[in-house]
Specification:
The protein has 360 residues and is α/β, with parallel strands linked by helices. The protein has helices at residues 16-26, 40-53, 66-71, 84-96, 111-124, 138-149, 171-174, 186-202, 312-326, 332-351, and strands spanning 6-11, 30-37, 61-64, 77-80, 100-103, 128-130, 156-166, 210-218, 222-230, 236-242, 244-255, 259-262, 273-286, 289-302, 358-359.
């Protein structure tokens, strides 16, 4: 490994990797060395298309076969966007080869798989992290500051979120997210993972005491699901994830004195800043008049939302590169990935048991 540069390989030519193609370029401490696919033409086409829009110098090379990339001596870290159902084999192989691993979510089909991978990475002394980009945004730092100050919303009581998009009918036959063999967790893994992570982050990773979930629609994979979680201290959380509702990605934190709302907590709207709204309301009854007054303020940080050196995905690769280059893996990241998967598993068990309460 170079002292100042983390050399990256992308293991699989998935669509999401196109976004991270640019993030690696802008990271400042990373260089994309190669892209691997089982099909040589696909890897070459992926590189040519991305290179035409966002060129790397020198251009990454195409590798045929995942095993060859894992064995490559000029690659330090792997970004792995393979389907969940195929991921474990290559995550374990990467760890055994001494490669640091940034893995798309969900990180496994269940917590047993994720635990096995996390333990393998720890034994190998390599960094493991899931690809939740919003975790690396400066917006979360500003949000934590407001929550800790206690003046914005008072005592936290409720966390609610939704992540959904309206998929066309062809999605369930043509997209891998509708195929049980490749993405068995469906919308829960693809979208609910973010809702669960946001709740855990808000609670400083205290695990819920119990969950209750309802499968609103399932074909071969979960299509729409809602869940409730009970946390220590009387805080509750709820979320809805779906492939059949209009695109929404919001979270609301309610307390004894007010609320905080973020309308784009996963994928920020395109702008030179990201932020959230703090709101307090007051009812002033006067005999037959009931005056509802609203007081709000916006908190924002300078950060572009997409394809920029300040964007959250760029910061994710930059932070990962710092950890890989330091030689001191941070156990926080694999720990929260496993916790997220444990809660997800509990939600799925409850949803497939007619909403039975599942304790953690």
């Amino acid at each position: 490994m170079s002292k100042n540069t983390c050399r990256w390989g992308i293991l699989g030519a998935a669509a999401i990797a196109r976004k991270n193609w640019q993030a690696i370029r802008h990271s400042g401490n990373g260089r994309l060395v190669a892209v691997a696919s089982r099909n040589a033409d696909r890897a070459a086409a992926f590189i040519a298309e991305c290179q035409a829009q966002i060129p790397h110098h020198p251009a990454p090379r195409a590798i045929t076969g995942y095993e060859e990339m894992i064995a490559a001596e000029d690659i330090d870290a792997l970004y792995i966007p393979l389907p969940t159902g195929l991921r474990k084999e290559y995550l374990l192989a990467a760890a055994a080869a001494g490669k640091h691993v940034l893995c798309e979510k969900p990180c496994g089909v269940d917590a047993n798989e994720v635990r096995e991978v996390v333990e393998a990475c720890a034994e190998a002394g390599v960094q493991f992290m899931d690809g939740v980009m919003f975790m690396h945004s400066d917006r979360l730092t500003a949000l934590r500051r407001e929550l800790d100050a206690g003046e914005a919303i008072g005592e936290l009581k409720r966390i609610v979120s939704q992540f959904s998009f309206l998929a066309p009918e062809s999605f369930f036959t043509e997209n891998i997210r509708g195929q049980a063999g490749l993405e068995p967790l469906g919308s829960l893994g693809d979208l609910g993972w973010y809702c669960i992570r946001m709740a855990l982050w808000t609670m400083r990773y205290a695990m819920p005491l119990s969950v209750r979930a309802h499968m609103l629609r399932e074909i071969s994979v979960p299509v729409s699901l809602s869940a409730e979680m009970d946390f220590p201290g009387g805080v509750t959380a709820g979320f809805y994830c779906s492939f059949e509702a209009h695109h929404q990605q919001w979270v609301n934190l309610s307390g004894t004195e007010g609320q905080i709302s973020m309308r784009d907590f996963v994928l920020p709207q395109y702008a030179p800043e990201v932020g959230f709204e703090i709101e307090r309301s007051r009812m002033e009854p006067d005999l037959c008049h009931f005056h509802m007054e609203r007081y709000s303020r916006r908190v924002a940080v300078p950060e572009y939302s997409d394809g920029h050196p300040t964007a959250q995905e760029t910061k994710m690769f930059r932070r990962f590169g710092e950890l890989a280059l330091s030689g001191r893996p941070d156990p926080h990241w694999p720990d929260i990935a496993l916790k997220t998967q444990l809660v997800l598993d509990a939600c799925l068990r409850s949803a497939r048991s007619d909403g039975r309460e599942v304790t953690l």
